[in-house]
């Protein structure tokens, strides 16, 4: 049976109103799986409505098994679609509800109302600094309601105060694709897709870390391809696009590598057997190179899929509850290992120094501390203890599955420290 080209209803949060936005229904499809290779762990987080308390809660779980690791209640009753964003630098998850912007601190398992600004629509967070960037569109209307002018800005956002610092203006940009953005934390480039008044649909790359604002703009000229969302692989410096490809009366989803310099798109994977995408449910795990999303067939149930960009396999993952939306991959371990200092401590002023090398490692890592150690152990990115470490001068990691881990140390004076490492 051929899939028909239909359009579902999506919502975005603009100027305190829920505005329906018609988007192409995202059809998707088949990939020949060479082997079912799964990572040892794939930590996720997402929003879920709790009927018992009539409120939204955050569930963290392992995407491979579907087993929840913890649940964090919030004060929000519902979630605005496309409003979530994850701060891997500070281990905080943001989403917008009817009560404003909710900040969930995953380190402490607590939630609070952070402000009134919606951070999520086309917003991205720099994993090397925790700074939030987004693109803002301001429309000017006449007294009769006619559109006079449109201005598009790239801004740095303070969620708590609800203020924007304008980094620069994007001239000729007349519209934006909602939820189509990503951030290169290595080069400090914020990518998004907009409509240029002359060139049509374009990929923009705004340099956010330079003193003088600059951006690139390349047209995306294939009318059969509609980009759904962007993901940036900060491990391998690759920009991925989840796209809908239309051919006559049918359509399906592809994953493509997108060249930021030319706009050229190279097909990475094709999913002709699936034809529905659930908005705001695509995320990228920097630790493993896996892209996760909710896909299905028209008239059928949505499934949670894991696609590996390293071995081109598509497998079915697991979710811990029905109606998991606005989910993100937990890239805290990756951000700490790649961009953080070698040691994260509870008391940075007086805690003893800790060194761990080589990093990455496949078998033995050497350990040096500037104070006597009372206890130390290894945990994975979900906080689960993986191995006790009796030797205070080395760490044997050969039995660990490849991935990101933390060595946690308690010194005899009561202070604690933590160092991230990668097991190859």
In words, what does this structure look like?
This protein is an all-beta fold and 424 residues long. It has one helix and 34 strands. The strands form nine sheets. It has a five-stranded antiparallel beta sheet with strand order 27-34-33-30-31. Strands 5-4-3-26 form a four-stranded antiparallel beta sheet, with no helix packed on it. A hairpin with a 5-residue loop joins strand 4 and strand 5. The model is unreliable at 1-36 and 341-349 (pLDDT under 50).
Features:
1 helix, mainly beta, 424 residues, 2% helix, single chain, 5-stranded antiparallel β-sheet, 4-stranded antiparallel β-sheet
Principal-axis shape: globular
Order the strands across the largest sheet as they lie in space: 27-34-33-30-31
- Beta-strand share of residues: over 45%
CA radius of gyration: 22 Å
Report the structural category. mainly beta
Give the overall average pLDDT: 82
Number of strands: 34
Q: How is the biggest beta sheet arranged? A: 5 strands, antiparallel
Approximate helicity band: under 10%
Q: Please give the alpha-carbon distance between the first and last residues.
A: 45 Å
Uncertain spans, ≥5 residues at pLDDT below 50? 1-36, 341-349
Number of helices: 1
């Amino acid at each position: 049976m051929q899939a028909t080209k239909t359009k579902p209803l999506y919502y975005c949060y603009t100027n305190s109103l829920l505005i329906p936005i018609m988007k192409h229904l995202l059809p998707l499809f088949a990939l020949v799986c060479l082997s079912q290779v799964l990572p040892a762990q794939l930590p996720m987080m997402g929003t879920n409505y709790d009927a018992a308390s009539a409120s939204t809660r955050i569930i963290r779980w392992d995407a491979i098994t579907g087993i929840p690791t913890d649940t964090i209640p919030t004060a929000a009753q519902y979630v605005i679609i496309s409003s979530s964003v994850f701060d891997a630098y500070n281990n905080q998850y943001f989403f917008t509800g009817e009560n404003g912007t909710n900040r969930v601190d995953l380190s402490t398992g607590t939630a609070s109302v952070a402000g009134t600004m919606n951070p999520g629509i086309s917003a991205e967070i720099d994993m090397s600094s925790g700074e939030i960037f987004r693109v803002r569109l301001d429309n000017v209307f006449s007294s009769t309601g006619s559109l006079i002018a449109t201005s598009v800005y790239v801004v740095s956002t303070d969620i708590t105060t609800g203020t924007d610092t304008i980094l620069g203006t994007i001239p000729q940009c007349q519209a934006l694709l909602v939820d189509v953005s990503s951030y290169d934390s290595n080069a400090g480039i914020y990518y998004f897709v907009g409509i240029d008044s002359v060139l049509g649909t374009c990929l923009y790359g705004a340099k956010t870390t330079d003193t003088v604002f600059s951006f690139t703009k390349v047209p995306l000229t294939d009318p059969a391809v509609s980009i759904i969302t962007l993901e940036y692989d900060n491990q391998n410096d690759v920009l991925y696009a989840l796209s809908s490809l239309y051919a006559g009366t049918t359509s399906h989803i592809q994953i493509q590598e997108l060249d930021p310099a030319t706009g050229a798109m190279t097909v990475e994977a094709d999913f002709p057997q699936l034809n529905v995408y659930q908005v705001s449910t695509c995320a990228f795990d920097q630790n493993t190179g896996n892209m996760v999303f909710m896909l299905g067939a028209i008239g059928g149930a949505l499934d949670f899929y894991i696609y590996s960009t390293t071995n081109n396999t598509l497998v079915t993952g697991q979710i811990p509850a029905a109606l998991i939306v606005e989910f993100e991959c937990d890239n805290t371990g990756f951000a700490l290992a790649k961009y953080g200092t070698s040691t994260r401590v509870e008391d940075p002023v007086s805690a003893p120094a800790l060194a761990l090398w080589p990093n990455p490692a496949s078998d033995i890592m050497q350990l040096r501390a500037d104070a006597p150690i009372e206890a130390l152990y290894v945990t994975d990115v979900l906080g689960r203890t993986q191995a006790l470490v009796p030797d205070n001068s080395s760490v044997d990691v050969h039995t660990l599955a490849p991935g990101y881990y933390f060595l946690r140390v308690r010194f005899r004076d009561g202070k604690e420290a933590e160092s991230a490492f990668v097991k190859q």
